Amino acid sequence: MTGSFDDLLAANARYADDFKLAGFDGVAHAGVALVTCMDSRIDPLGMLGLRPGDAKMLRNPGGRVDDQVLVALVVAVSLLGVDRVLVIPHTRCAMASGTENEIRERVSQASGRDASWQTFGAIQDQTAALRDDVARIRAHPLIPESVAVGGFMYDVDTGRLSQLV
Description:
By secondary structure, this protein is an alpha/beta fold. The protein is 31% helix and 16% strand. The protein contains four helices and five strands. Strands 2-1-3-4-5 form a five-stranded mixed sheet, covered by helices on one side. A hairpin with a 6-residue loop joins β4 (148-154) and β5. It starts with 5 loop residues before the first helix and ends with a strand.
């Protein structure tokens, strides 16, 4: 696999030549944390008019609020200047494109390996899941009521956000 990453290392060298975040304090300067999907059609900072250093970004399949995301949000709110949390799933998400068994089958076919044991977190109703995720954050005992928490849907075809919760 030597050489598999040469293009990315070359791009990193160019990036480092003009690196401006040295000594950055790690605080979310816009007070924002966002939870969104790992989908490559999403530019988390760009879609909100933010820049590196403005926000804490948490990404996973479907943009769900699981236990690890809650831990990260508690740290972000308690130690890293976050006072606004956005949960942002998106249209045409693979995690909302079938049942858990259908996704397992597609992964099994694509990988050539049995994925029947793996939980992927298929989403049957994105709006209901978003409401549950926002409620889960709001109910966490280490996230104060003063933290604004909102649920939004990102449209991958228009780039627009709509607040749903």
